[in-house]
Design goal:
The protein is α+β, with helices and mostly antiparallel strands. The chain has two domains: 279 residues, Beta-galactosidase, Chain A, domain 5, CATH 2.70.98; 251 residues, TIM Barrel (Alpha-Beta Barrel), CATH 3.20.20. It contains 15 helices and 32 strands. The longest helix has 17 residues. It is globular. It starts with 12 loop residues before the first helix and ends with a strand.
């Protein structure tokens, strides 16, 4: 049963029982996780769906600098099965009300010196999750040098993976920011193009069309953000830690903590493509909401001048015009981007927020997170580096009437940065300020824990299209990937909707496709690229569509599609109306057959269809049909 040998992948349940494995089943019985210690005393697991293997024998455990919890362990005890349930509400996501139900078992292990490690497994109908707990009280700070956790796939499995960028590369040395293109349908074991591993969420598919989406959740203080390592020999992917340069000053990137301590969840969504796309495990397993936070705003839509007008137009007169634009469109926010401190100033910013208030619009402002971890020059910067400076700055913003902040240009996934994210969110929450992270790591369910976290970038969003034609050329398939990966669990500030331009760049998406992304992409704060002059030229029904489009959805249903090719999703608003969007990421026309039966539409209800015009280039077409 060596963990490098492939012949254990197809182990049958009878063989597993003979090896002393213990099963943990999902409530519906379709998913089974088998756990045991192998001949070397290493904790391992296997995962199957409907009796068919999903993950072969994969490793568990981690290595502290003072103790090895990946091998030569003894099983002390195992808990009986228990049902865990959770119910929570989450605004600004693909579903408002959430119900989580899973089977839970805890296994207590010890090394030769009696030092303990617990492994918690929770198996729900849509996936499996596990995490490690150091239960003993010890005030000594312990460091983790590596995590043995792995995910072992059969050789014929295909993967859709985004490579991790190399630290300190890219604009002003601001990488990594989760802003690369996905490699699509690649064989498992394919090395990452940059040699730095793969980011979460990571998507895989077996030949029997079982889909697997791997991520992590409930990333707390003391741990670093993880990734899949570059080396994946034989289709076995291991958890990797950040590059040593992804840190603040000389602080080590790897986890450091006193115990008792609980690590983040390793999350494996499993099922049909529909099950995976509709899964909410990333927030189901996140820490519960911080209580007592009184926000200065709610999820909403925002105007934004920067994508088409750039830094030089972050000036008073232009921003006042974009406030008027937001008011005319019924959007609740206007984002004032970088350099506002120099080109507008605090006194004029106060005038803008007061003016916006008369229009029922709230102001958001941009900040550079920067210390010395990259060379991004945009200001304001160096104002959020300590608790004292944050309190002073946030106090000032509240007096100016600002509702939220967009914080940009972070420095990686090291433990000090994860602590910094928590510091920012906690301090902002104490003032009720909304938060949008850019140039950032994946949120990993933080939007549940901190209700003031509205969204995060962590995607190669629209801004890249403004930089180069090559990005516009790849936009259709790139956009068609996001509902299957980046935007499954966490809000995504892609910044959709460009109907003209930008500039000399030739857009490769259609008008209908651009409109569809406003429904397909979910974000607590949805910033739209289009500017007032272009919006004024659109048909009245397009402007009305964008006025009425919800930000909070009661539920979402995946109706059809394939990663990177096409996607059709239906989302239900609070008033009961369904908003259905389809996007084609391939050249030419593409047909996807979907059924609306599960939406339970009333017979004879009208469907208002907005599509690309069939006779006029770069135009919309609208018609109404009646459901059978």
């Amino acid at each position: 049963m060596g963990w490098n040998s492939w012949d254990t992948f197809g182990t049958t349940p009878a063989m597993v029982g003979a090896l002393g494995a213990t099963e943990v089943k999902s409530p519906d019985g379709n998913l089974t996780l088998d756990f045991h210690l192998n001949a070397d005393g290493a904790p391992v697991y296997m995962l199957s769906r409907n009796g068919q293997p999903v993950l072969g024998e994969s490793r568990l455990g981690l290595v502290r600098e003072d103790a090895d919890f990946s091998r030569q362990l003894t099983l002390l005890s195992e808990s009986p099965e228990e049902c865990v349930q959770d119910h929570y509400a989450l605004t600004g996501s693909k579903r408002r009300l959430h119900d989580y139900r899973a089977t839970r078992r805890v296994f207590s292990l010890a090394d030769a010196k009696g030092r303990r490690l617990n492994i918690i497994f929770q198996i729900s109908n849509d996936g499996a999750a596990f995490r490690y707990v150091f239960p003993e009280s010890d005030a000594t700070i312990r460091a983790v040098s590596e995590e043995a956790t792995s995910f072992r796939f059969a050789p014929d499995v295909k993967a859709w993976l985004q490579p991790m960028a190399v630290a300190k590369t890219g604009f002003a040395k601001t990488n990594p920011s989760y802003e690369e293109y996905h490699e699509q349908e690649i064989p498992v074991g394919t090395p990452s193009k940059f040699g730095a591993g793969w980011v979460f969420p990571a998507l895989f598919s077996t030949n029997d069309q079982t889909w697997i989406l791997i991520t992590e959740a409930d990333l707390g203080r003391g741990y670093c953000a993880s990734r899949l390592r570059n080396e994946s020999s034989g289709g076995e992917y291991r958890i990797g830690f950040p590059d040593w340069r992804e840190t603040m000053g000389s602080e080590p990137v790897n986890p450091r903590f006193a115990s008792p301590y609980t690590t983040p969840w390793r999350v494996i969504a499993v099922g049909s493509l529909k099950t995976v796309v509709e899964s909410t495990l990333g927030t189901d397993l996140a820490a519960r909401e911080v209580q007592g936070v009184k926000l200065l705003g709610n999820p909403g839509k925002a105007s934004w001048s920067w994508p088409k007008l750039g830094d030089r137009m972050t000036v008073y007169s232009v921003q006042r015009r974009f406030i008027d634009y937001a008011a005319e469109m019924g959007w609740g926010y206007c984002l004032i981007d970088a350099l506002w401190d120099q080109q507008i100033g605090e006194e004029k910013l106060a005038e803008l927020t007061a003016y916006a208030a008369t229009k029922n619009v709230k102001i958001l402002v941009w900040y550079n997170s920067n210390g010395d971890w990259n060379d991004a020059p945009q200001t304001p910067k160096d104002r959020l580096l300590s608790h004292e400076t944050r309190v002073a700055e946030f106090t000032k913003l509240c007096k100016l009437g600002v509702a939220g902040v967009k914080i940009d240009f972070f420095g990686g996934d090291g433990r000090p940065f994860i602590d910094f994210y928590h510091d920012l969110l906690e301090d902002a929450a104490s003032f009720g300020l909304l938060v949008n992270f850019h140039g950032t790591t994946l949120p990993r369910g933080w939007e549940r824990t901190y209700p003031n976290l509205m969204t995060g970038e962590a995607v190669r969003g629209f801004e890249f299209i403004t930089f180069q034609q090559s990005n516009a050329d790849r936009a259709p398939t790139h956009m068609a990937m996001q509902p299957f990966t980046r935007n499954v669990f966490d809000p995504m500030d892609f910044t959709p909707l460009c109907l003209e331009g930008p500039g000399k760049i030739k857009r490769r998406t259609t008008l209908g496709g651009e409109l569809a992304t406003t429904v397909l992409f979910t974000s607590g704060l949805q910033h739209y690229v289009e500017i007032p002059e272009v919006m004024a030229k659109q048909p009245g029904y397009i402007r009305e569509f964008l006025r009425e489009l919800p930000v909070t959805w009661e539920e979402s249903r995946f109706l059809g599609g394939y990663p990177g090719r096409q996607v059709v999703i239906a989302r239900r608003a609070a008033d009961g109306r369904w908003w259905i969007a389809g996007f084609n990421g391939e050249p030419g026309t593409s047909e996807v057959e979907v059924s609306l039966a599960e939406l339970q539409l009333e017979p004879g209800c009208s469907l208002d269809l907005i599509t690309d015009a069939t006779t006029v280039v770069e135009s919309f077409e609208r018609r109404t049909v009646v459901s059978p």
